[in-house]
Amino acid sequence: MDKFKPLTDNYGRRITYLRISVTDRCNLRCVYCMPEKGISLLNHDEIISYEIILRLVSVLAKHGVNKIRITGGEPLVRKGLAGFIESISGISGIKDVSLTTNGVLLERYARELYDAGLKRINISLDSLKEDIFRKITRTGSLKDVITGINLAKNMGFNPIKINTVLIKGINDGEIIDFVDFARKLELNLRFIEYMPIGGNIAEAVLSKEIEEKISSAYDGFSLINRNKKDKDGAGVLENSVSKEFGFKDCGAVIGFISPLSRHFCGDCSRLRLTASGNLRLCLFYDTEYNIKDILNETDDEIIFEKISEFIKLKEYKHNFNEKAKKQESLLWANDFMNEIGG
Ligand code: SAM
Ligand code: SF4
After folding, report:
1. CB 313 within 8 A of CB 281
2. Mutate to test the pocket of ligand 2, among 19, 24, 29, 105 (most ligand atoms within 8 A of CB)
């Protein structure tokens, strides 16, 4: 048998986690993610096919990629997602498949997704007040997302993680409401620091400030150490980017993802696939590699060698604090989160 060759960058970091943006389309227009009028979207034939993604994942899985996140745009607007998730989960070596969604279409698709084998889900929710929800998403209804969360909970999705981005002066008054919401439903709530992308539309609320507010409101709010390696000592299966806290009296978990104030580049095991079929090494560098052509190769090892060469270009750490100081856009002129997938 051939010796196992892990996908490794120039700094010895093993790449074990692939985030796949399956579409650049979205049914919302969140102020921090997309311009109000939307952006010029890819033509349907420019969006990477499920077939090519599955081929890529099967090659990478032989070289240690074991964790997949499906994101977008809004992944639930792409047809055939449940079947695709079922196929990806069946690839040998893939241990963890999860989905990030805005939750609007969960009422329609939760059952199908669950039956396809999806058990882990992240739902983005930035306000518990209908008017503020509308202000942030510019469209859409909070009621739909809450219905989706309750349905996912009753169906047995576990864990359910709620992703919340706080923006000064808009939703930063809702910290305790969010914590109470997570405690009531025993959810995993993660506050993600707002990244000023494509122009600085607002001020971020840093994790420390949120942590202090929660800590002074609840007794027994304490740090949980849950970073775990898989049994080969390889990829981090549990979340390493989020600093997590629990409570003595309930099972809710509060996490902080702090790209601005506590970067996690040293442990980065991530690779991204954009909706147009480009592999991207880091959210904040525009180095991309189109995989559509190399996936025509019939020999998996040639594909792996080509991707390996590309991985060697991965930078050690992101540069966005430097860019932010100079008030430069954190992404490049034609980049938006909806295509890269966040
Ligand atoms: N549409 C899905 C959703 O909203 O969950 C998946 C795609 S969205 C790009 C993935 C995640 O990126 C969401 O949790 C969203 O809140 C986050 N995100 C988008 N723009 C962001 C920004 N400027 N700063 C921080 N997080 C951002
Ligand atoms: Fe759409 Fe998600 Fe971006 Fe909001 S954050 S506009 S839901 S892709």
Report:
1. yes
2. 29
Q: Whose CA is nearest to atom 12 of ligand 1?
A: 342
What residue ranges do the domains of the chain occupy? 17-340
Nearest in space to 132 (alpha carbons), one of 83, 176, 171, 84: 171
Tell me, in angstroms, the distance from the centre of ligand 2 to residue 92's CA. 31
CATH number, span 17-340:
3.20.20.70
Ligand 2, atom 8: nearest CA belongs to which residue? 73
**What average pLDDT is seen over the chain?**
87
Is residue 235 predicted with pLDDT exceeding 50?
no
pLDDT in tens, 211-227: 999 999 999 999 996 65
Between the CA of 197 and the centroid of ligand 2 the distance, in Å, is 13
Which tens digits make up the pLDDT trace of 50-98? 999 999 999 999 999 999 999 999 999 999 999 999 999 999 999 999 9
- Where is 271: in which H helix or E strand? strand 270-273
Taking 60 as the threshold, does the pLDDT of residue 335 lie above it? Answer: no
Residue pLDDT, tens place only, 259-286: 888 777 778 888 999 999 999 988 877 7
Tell me which amino acid residue 264 is: F
Please tell me the number of the ligand nearest to residue 38's CA: 2
Q: Where are the alpha helices (DSSP H) in 62-195?
A: 81-89, 106-115, 130-137, 142-155, 175-185
Ligand 1 atom with the smallest distance to the CA of 26 is 1
Give the pLDDT of residue 227. 54
Which atom of ligand 2 is closest in space to residue 72's alpha carbon? 8
**Cα dist. 247→62, 125, 219, 239 in Å?**
39, 21, 8, 18
Pocket of ligand 1 (CB under 6 A): 26, 32-33, 71-72, 74, 100-102, 124, 163, 165, 192, 194-195, 197, 337-338, 341-342
